Amino acid sequence: MRKVAIAGYGLAKFTKEQKPIESLMLPAVKSLFDDTKNLTQKDIDTVLVSTNDNTKYLASIISELAGICPKISHSVESLCSSGANTLVSAFSYIRSGLADVALVIGAEKADNPGNVLNWDVSRGEYKHPIYWASLFTKAHMRKYGTTKQDLAYVSVTNHKNAKENPYAYSNKEYSIEDVMKSKNLTEDLRVLDCSMPCAGSAAILLASEESVRNFTDSPVWITGIGQKTQSASFTKSVELTSMNSTITASHDAFGMSKKNPHDIDVVELHDAFTIFEMMGLEDLGFVEKGNGKEYVKTLYETQDKKINPRGGLIGAGHPLGATGVAQIIEITQQLSGKAGKRQVFPANVGLVQNMSAAATSSTIIIMEA
Amino acid sequence: MRKVAIAGYGLAKFTKEQKPIESLMLPAVKSLFDDTKNLTQKDIDTVLVSTNDNTKYLASIISELAGICPKISHSVESLCSSGANTLVSAFSYIRSGLADVALVIGAEKADNPGNVLNWDVSRGEYKHPIYWASLFTKAHMRKYGTTKQDLAYVSVTNHKNAKENPYAYSNKEYSIEDVMKSKNLTEDLRVLDCSMPCAGSAAILLASEESVRNFTDSPVWITGIGQKTQSASFTKSVELTSMNSTITASHDAFGMSKKNPHDIDVVELHDAFTIFEMMGLEDLGFVEKGNGKEYVKTLYETQDKKINPRGGLIGAGHPLGATGVAQIIEITQQLSGKAGKRQVFPANVGLVQNMSAAATSSTIIIMEA
C-alpha cells in the first residue's frame, strides 16, 4: 500500500462573522494555494468538503470557484468529527489508487445546524451538548475527585495557547479566578468551560508518496487511523467517565502506526468542554485513569504546550466541519517545525482526536514527520 | 490491490409516502439482512449514507437503529449522484485496507432539498432542472434532427420496463400517443419526459475478495470506476449536445476495467429526462453521436431491455440519494442472473451512469460477474 502525506494547508480566522459558506471556504483554499509551492488547479484530482451546512453540491461549487475540475468531489458529514472523517476518506482514495492529490476543505457557519442534537430523543429536553458534558463532569468528580478548579486549568491553558494562534476565535487570556467566576450554565459548567460555536474554515492538501515532494520538502505522513461509532444516542453510552469510541479507535490507530502513547510528542484533543481534555488524556493512555486532573494542573503550571498547542476547541473555537481539519493542520505545523511560538520540542509524532456527540463516535489520526 | 465485490443488497419501494428519512432507510437495510446469508451486524465495519436530507449524524443514527457499531460512518452528498459517489467511497475504503465489509444506504424523502438548484445563479430564474433539460433537448433537435416522437420512445420503453420492477414508483404503461399528449411543461418537454422526485431507499453490501464469499456465492465485482466534475453551474457546460463529464469519466472507467462499449451487456443510464438517455447512449460510445434517436426507437420496437431494465429514473422514480444505489443493485441482479422478468441475456459485464445537475458531474461504474 502506498503512503499518504500532507502536502500543504491553509486556514482562515475563526470568527463570528456571518458569511455564505462558500465565502468562508475560499480564503483557506487561497491560503493553501499561496503557500504550497508549484501547486496548480490541474494537480488536484479530488475535492472533499467537510461541513454540516445544508448547501447541496458544495464540493462542486467550491471546485468551480477555485478553478478545479476534479475527478472525485462530494461533501462528507458526521457532525463535530466531519473533518477527521473527510481526511480519512481522502486518505483512502489516495491509498487505494483512485486519487493522487486531494484537497480537503472543512468549513462551518457560526449558526450551523449541528449545534443542537434534535435527533436524539433519548436526551429528552437536554438537547444542547452542554447537558451531557455536565453529566460526564459530575460522574468524573464523583469517581475521581475532579474539582471545578481542575476544569479551570484546562480553560486557562487553552485560552493562553490560543493567544499564539493567529486563526483562533479567542484572543483573550483568563486567570483561574476568571474561569471560576464565569457564568454558570449548568451546576458544574461555566461559560469558560465550553468551546464556542463560530464560523471558520481550514483546508489540507493530501498527496501520494509519489507526488508529495512536488509540493513540499517536509511532508507529514499519516501513519495511523482508528475510527469507531458506538451509537448516535447518549443513552447507549454505558459509562460516564470513559469515551469508549476513543479507546477503541486509538487502539486501532496505535496498532496501525506501531506506536504507543509514550511515542506521541504533541496532541490535538477534542476539548468541546473542559472535562473532555481530562477524559481524553486518560482514554488515550497518556495518564492513568483518574489522573487527568493532575496532568492538566502540570500543563498549567509548566506552560507545556504538548496538549492542544493551538488552543484546542476551547481557545480556537469550534466551527464543526473545520475543527478536525484545523487540528490536523496544527499537528502538521508542529511536526514540520513551522508552529512558531507554539512549537513543541521534540515533535516527531503527533496525534489528533476528533469526536462527535458525547463521544458516541471518535476518529484518531497519528502523524509522523 | 485487492478486489471489491457486491455481497448483498436490499430495496424499498419508491413511493410518494411522507416518512422520516430513518424510516425510509430501515426497510432496505432489513431486506439486505434478510437476503444475505450469514450476515450479522458485527461483520459490518463501515456504514455510509447517501442522501440530500438535512438530518445530521444520519450514518450513526441508522447504525444504531440497525444494531451496527461500525468503525467508519458518515454521510456523503453530491446531489443526484450521491449514490454512486458513496459506493465509490466504500470501494476505496475496502481497497485501501481501512475497511473490509461496508454497508451503503441511499435514501431520500419525496420533498428532498436537492430538487431545485438554488445555488446556481447562472441559471437565472430557471432553477428547476427541467429548464436545462429543455435547452439540451432543443440543441439535440437542432443538431441531429431528434424529434418529440424519439423522446417518447424512451418514456414508453422505460415505463414498460418499470412494470416488471416491484420497487418502481411508476407501474403504468403508456403509449407513444399518451406521451405525445401528456402535459407540456416546457416548449419541448412533457410530464412523461421527466423522472419523478419520490421517496425511496436502497442498500448495498460491499466486501473485500477475502470476505465476499462468506455472504454470497455469486459476487459481482466492481472493475471500473471513472468520475469527473466539470463545474457546478450550468453556464460552464461548453456544449449542449454532449455531457463532457460522462465522456471523461467513462474513458477512465473503461480504462480501469480494460473494457470497451462493445463489451457491455446491460446498462443503467441516468435518464432524469428523456433526452439524457439518447445523449448517454452517444456519450458512452454505444452509438455514434447523433444516432441515439435510432437506438431508442430500436429498443422500443424490439423490447430489448439492455438499457435501463429496471425502468430508469423515468420509470423507477428518482429519490436522489437512492438512485445511484438502486442502479448498481439492478446491474448486480442482472449480472448474477437474479433479475427475473427483467433479465437480460447474456449479462456478464454491466455499466452504471449516475450524474448530477445537467451532467456537470458524472460517475461511471463498470461491474463484472
Mind describing the biggest β-sheet of chain A? 9 strands, mixed
Structural class of chain A: alpha/beta
Average pLDDT across residues of chain A?
95
SS summary, helix count of chain A: 11
SSE arrangement of chain A, N to C: EHEHEHEHHHEEHEHHHHEE
Mind telling me the CATH superfamily name of the largest domain in chain A?
Thiolase/Chalcone synthase
Brief sketch in words of this structure:
Chain A is an alpha/beta fold and 369 residues long.
List keywords for this structure.
369 residues, alpha/beta, Peroxisomal Thiolase, Chain A, domain 1, globular
Describe this structure in words.
By secondary structure, chain A is an alpha/beta fold. Chain A folds into two domains: 4-112 and 199-220, Thiolase/Chalcone synthase (Peroxisomal Thiolase, Chain A, domain 1, 3-Layer(aba) Sandwich); 136-194 and 221-368, Thiolase/Chalcone synthase (Peroxisomal Thiolase, Chain A, domain 1), CATH 3.40.47.10. The first copy, chain A, contains eleven helices and nine strands. Chain A is globular and about 55 Å long. In chain A, 63% of the residues are buried. At the A-B interface, helix 2, strand 3, helix 3 and strand 6 of A face helix 2, strand 3, helix 3 and strand 6 of B. Strand 3 (72-77) of chain A pairs antiparallel with strand 3 of chain B, so a sheet runs across the interface.
